[in-house]
Amino acid sequence: MLEAHIVSPHGSLSYAGEAEPYDLEMLWEHVRDATAESAGDDVTLEVVVHDAGIDPGVAAWIRRVGRAGIAVRLVFSRALGGRDDESLAEPGEDRVRSAP
């Protein structure tokens, strides 16, 4: 299950559902649309991380979104070791940008 929020100056869109490749592609389309409408500067993708963590396929997708220049913020459903955000970058990869 994936819970995500696209936040932009023109509003926000929430998604809660499956995280199959088709679902991720449709979510990416919404991110791209929001980016085009706002000149790309103020769009953030927030992904809620539940106790079970993030599926490896979703983690790879989040890294691709970050490499495309979209700010990604991970929101933990409960505190993990006192940290609010966690980077999913693997060694040698670009780091996922975290929104301020």
Characterization of the model:
It is built from two helices and four strands, in the order ββαβαβ. It is α+β, with helices and mostly antiparallel strands and 100 residues long. Mean pLDDT is 80; it is low at 82-100. The chain has one domain. The longest helix is centred in the first third of the chain and has 17 residues, at 21-37.
Secondary structure tally: strands: 4
Structural class: alpha+beta
Give the CA-based shape: globular
Q: Tell me about the largest β-sheet.
A: 4 strands, mixed
Strand order of the largest sheet: 2-1-3-4
H/E element order: EEHEHE
Summarize the structure.
The chain has helices at 21-37, 56-67; strands at residues 2-8, 11-17, 44-49, 71-76. The chain is an alpha+beta fold and 100 residues long. The protein has one domain (2-76).
Which keywords apply here?
alpha+beta, four-stranded mixed sheet, 4 strands
Question: How are the elements arranged and paired?
Answer:
Layout: E1 2-8, E2 11-17, H1 21-37, E3 44-49, H2 56-67, E4 71-76
Parallel strand pairs: 3-4
Antiparallel strand pairs: 1-2, 1-3
